[in-house]
Amino acid sequence: MNLIWWLLIGLAAGWLASLMMKTRKRSLGSNLLLGVIGSVVGGFLLGLLGLFTNGSVIGSLVSATIGAVVVIWLVNYFSRD
């Protein structure tokens, strides 16, 4: 069950990050996938800073969205022509 929540939060984070980043190059599906990857990155980055979500849905969504923004930004930065 935790895996399903993790995936749903990652998908929501990818959607929010795509709105925040206003990316037109990537499809919504690829941004959702980057959001799932970003949820792992966000948890790792905030863990390095000593910030933890303690299992709350809102905290997990914020953490995942921060990670998704970072991942989408990195992908956009390195894929420039």
Extended strand count: 0
Structural class comes to mainly alpha
- The rounded Rg comes to 12 Å
Percentage of residues in DSSP E strands: under 5%
Distance between the termini: 41 Å
Q: What is the approximate shape?
A: globular
Short description:
The protein is globular, with a radius of gyration of 12 Å. The chain starts with a helix and ends with a helix.
Using brief descriptors, characterize the structure shown.
81 residues, mainly alpha, 3 helices, globular
Topology:
Layout: H1 2-21, H2 28-48, H3 57-78
Helix pairs in contact: 1-2, 1-3, 2-3
Overview of the structural elements:
Helix 1 packs across helix 2 (28-48) and helix 2 (28-48) crosses helix 3 (57-78). It is globular, with a radius of gyration of 12 Å. The chain starts with a helix and ends with a helix. It has 81 residues and is an all-alpha fold. The longest helix has 22 residues, at 57-78. The protein is built from 3 helices and no strands.
